Fold this sequence. Notes:
Belongs to the eukaryotic/archaeal RNase P protein component 1 family. Its main location: nucleus. This protein is α+β, with helices and mostly antiparallel strands. The chain is built from 6 helices and 8 strands. It has a domain at 80-195: CATH 2.30.30.210. The protein has a 6-stranded antiparallel sheet. A two-stranded antiparallel sheet has the order 1-2. Strand 5 and strand 6 (160-164) form a beta hairpin. It is elongated, with a radius of gyration of 36 Å.
Amino acid sequence: xxxxxxxxxxxxxxxxxxxxxxxxxxxxxxxxxxxxxxxxxxxxxxxxxxxxxxxxxxxxxxxxxxxxxxxxxxxxxxxxxxxxxxxxxxxxxxxxxxxxxxxxxxxxxxxxxxxxxxxxxxxxxxxxxxxxxxxxxxxxxxxxxxxxxxxxxxxxxxxxxxxxxxxxxxxxxxxxxxxxxxxxxxxxxxxxxxxxxxxxxxxxxx
Length: 206
């Protein structure tokens, strides 16, 4: 934008214009301002102040020790009942049907297996079919919590079992499809498995 200034003979007008230009153009010398006054039009300069960007502080989460002290992942004894989590299992089955496009009889087993390996398993019913520790074999229940190295499972006897993934093979049945999870190759958090590429072929030892 331009500010048109009409010079007058009045000394007060000249003084006002001089003062105004000095404030508007602080980087100009007096000689430069006087030169500008000989013109009929003056382009006023604008100096914008640089805004300093404030660094956003990322919220810090709880440490593993703090989570243990706060008992965030503990299930109270009165809540450790199989019947309470049956609705969760029904929701999980519907989730898997939707994920696998209906689990039709002609569905390819390797496709179902691939989907299950990346799916959220909270609510799934699993059974330990093989183990290096015989006491784990036969444990069946609903997965309540999945951690990197263990499953927490509630059995029909209302017992909360902590079963390590390592050295165990788990079977998982959904609408007639039976899949197997080799725990030693499954030691990831649930949130990490969605980006993991699993090999569906080959021999996997306990």
